[in-house]
From TrEMBL:
Gene3D superfamilies named among the record's database cross-references: Homeodomain-like, Jelly Rolls
CDD domains: cupin_NimR-like_N (cd06124)
Alphabetically ordered keywords of this record: DNA-binding, Repressor, Transcription, Transcription regulation
Protein name: Transcriptional regulator, AraC family
Family annotation (Pfam families): HTH_18 (PF12833)
Zinc in keyword set: no
Domain of life according to the entry: Bacteria
Record-linked InterPro entries: Homeodomain-like_sf, HTH_AraC, HTH_AraC-typ_CS, RmlC-like_jellyroll, RmlC_Cupin_sf, Tscrpt_reg_AraC-type_HTH
Signal peptide: none
Keyword Glycosyltransferase: no
Length: 278
């Protein structure tokens, strides 16, 4: 039986603090259902004393950690280990299930990564929402937590990661392309803007990201596309925003990179965005 998130207690997010999230709990894990309204204020870089699994139920989340940006479209999750500085901007009106996990409760990665979330994991996490705050869990809830954490230990890791750099020239390019992803400025033109040669800039991009400029920009496009598609934007509108000549060329790029079309991608992940229209 699928749990209806509309009937679960939602913690609205407007201007949170890092301390507000570090709630004391006596159990191995604690789950919260979080809703982001249109007036929410993003929490700056912060860290937690417990590990944090962010499951995107609708909309999308981008998790920023030093050196990387991870996209968390609906139906997926990102794992942030205890003590890692991060920030997690979410699209307006999105819903996430945040599972806090004590450091010694499970053998989960010591680095940030995405985990493939199965329907079982999603439903157990939602079942635990609100049940462990302020009091110890009963025997049944402890058993559910054990099953959930065991399942998480076996989840495949991976997902869409965008390497980012703190080098001033790279920061300038990153900020411009995140703000205007449809910008088709060539590497040679970027070299002129940043007062360097095309060859030198190409080497810098590869050294900082492990990718060529073209491959890195395509990865950025995929992150932006998944975020917009998760928020219900039609494929044509996303294609236009990314500067593609047609929706067909965008879908071709998407399928080549992820192995499937946008609509089938969300069907596969079990996501629940507003319907993806192709």
């Amino acid at each position: 039986m699928t749990i209806d998130i509309e009937n679960l207690p939602i913690a609205p997010v407007r201007a949170p603090t890092a301390i507000a999230w570090d709630v004391e709990f006596a159990t191995p894990a604690m789950a919260l259902l979080v809703g982001y309204d249109k007036d929410w204020v993003e929490l700056p870089l912060h860290k937690h004393v417990n590990g944090q699994l962010i499951i995107a139920l609708s909309g999308a989340v981008m998790c920023h950690v030093p050196g990387s940006i991870w996209i968390v479209p609906a139906g997926c999750a990102v794992w942030v280990p205890a003590g890692l500085r991060h920030r997690s901007p979410a699209s307006p009106h999105s819903r996430t299930c945040i599972l806090f996990v004590k450091q010694d409760a499970a053998c989960l990665p010591h680095h940030c990564c995405t985990l493939e979330i199965t329907p079982l994991v999603r439903e157990i996490a939602l079942r635990l929402v609100g049940s462990t705050v302020g009091s110890d869990a009963d025997e049944h809830e402890l058993l559910l937590m054990k099953v959930l954490l065991t399942e998480l230990e076996g989840m495949a890791t991976g997902g869409l990661r965008l390497p980012v750099s703190s080098h001033p020239k790279m920061v300038a390019i990153q900020e411009e392309l995140m703000a205007n992803p449809g910008d088709r400025t060539t590497l040679a033109e970027w070299a002129g803007r940043t007062a360097t040669s095309e060859r030198t800039l190409g080497r810098l991009v590869f050294r900082e990201t492990g990718m060529t400029f073209g491959r890195w920009r395509q990865q950025l496009h995929l992150l932006v596309a998944l975020s917009k598609l998760s928020d219900g934007l039609p494929v044509q509108q996303v294609s236009d925003a990314l500067g593609y000549e047609s929706a067909t060329s965008f879908i071709t790029m998407f399928k080549k990179a992820l192995g499937t079309t946008p609509s089938r991608y969300f069907d596969r992940t079990g996501a629940s965005p507003r319907k993806v229209s192709e």
